Amino acid sequence: MKKSPNFNGIANAYSWMEKLTFGKSLARCRLALLGDLLHSHNALVIGDGDGRFTARLLEANPAVLVDALDASPAMLRALVDNAGIRASRVRVHVADARLWEPLVPRLDLIATHFFLDCLTTNEVASLAKRLRVAARPDAKWVVSEFAIPEGAFGSIVARPLIMALYIAFAVLTGLRVFRLPDHRTALSQAGFMLAKQRRFLHGLLVSELWTIAPTSTVQQP
Ligand SMILES: C[S@@+](CC[C@H](N)C(=O)[O-])C[C@H]1O[C@@H](n2cnc3c(N)ncnc32)[C@H](O)[C@@H]1O
């Protein structure tokens, strides 16, 4: 198991770093499917960084309780700050998601925005199996991710840009992953099913809603 990356040093700068590089596009992608999440009650938000998605979820869905998991205590502090008066509905867990066992087997929402790309395909597969065990049959999993679209834009723009981002995160945080995981295969094999997808920036960003596949049965990881 690799050492956890350390995002503490960039927690305060994270929001403006994002705006300088991608403007409002990442925010648009994260919030694209918020309207589908208004009836969830028990959410697990993994690697939400400074918590801008969590803040909007709490605001939009007054019934939701959030378990926020992150390896970075500084990111979790920023997440609680951003939640403001709604922070009483947030429980934080400082842990490496690659090792974490969900405590409450009643999840009806999982959210991972630009987090699965910190893991390898095998690590996403292992996490997805553990989350499937903890998920209710009506659970949703909302995913935002980078993608390399087919064609010239993918090979000339998206691929080098994503490599540059990985190198920057390797320097800034010690992240030791350098390629996007195949999260779709990992989630499908764990029993999730892609229900909805939206693309941004010519397919460089995707926002996806996954549900439990009708044929899926719980497998112990
Ligand atoms: C690239 S940032 C994404 C932040 C935010 N979700 C967004 O949409 O921009 C990745 C986040 O995941 C956390 N993280 C990375 N690897 C992790 C791991 N193995 N376990 C738990 N958290 C991790 C980092 O601390 C950071 O907060």
Summarize the structure.
36% of the residues lie in helices and 24% in strands. It has seven helices and seven strands, in the order ααβαβαββαβααββ.
Bound molecules: S-adenosylmethionine
What order do the helices and strands follow?
Answer: HHEHEHEEHEHHEE
Measured distance between first and last alpha carbons: 17 Å
Biggest sheet strand line-up: 3-2-1-4-5-7-6
Strand content bin: 15-25%
CATH class label of the domain at 25-147 and 184-212: Alpha Beta
Structural class: alpha/beta
Spatial extent as radius of gyration: 16 Å
CATH superfamily of the domain at 25-147 and 184-212: Vaccinia Virus protein VP39
Principal-axes shape call: globular
CATH architecture of the domain at 25-147 and 184-212: 3-Layer(aba) Sandwich
Number of strands: 7
Tell me about the largest β-sheet. 7 strands, mixed
Could you please describe the fold and organization of this structure?
The chain has 221 residues and is an alpha/beta fold. It has a domain at 25-147 and 184-212: Vaccinia Virus protein VP39 (Rossmann fold), CATH 3.40.50. 36% of the residues lie in helices and 24% in strands. It is built from 7 helices and 7 strands, in the order ααβαβαββαβααββ. A 7-stranded mixed beta sheet has the order 3-2-1-4-5-7-6, sandwiched between helices. β4, α5 (121-134) and β5 (135-146) form a beta-alpha-beta unit. Bound molecules: S-adenosylmethionine. The site of S-adenosylmethionine has 18 residues, from loops.
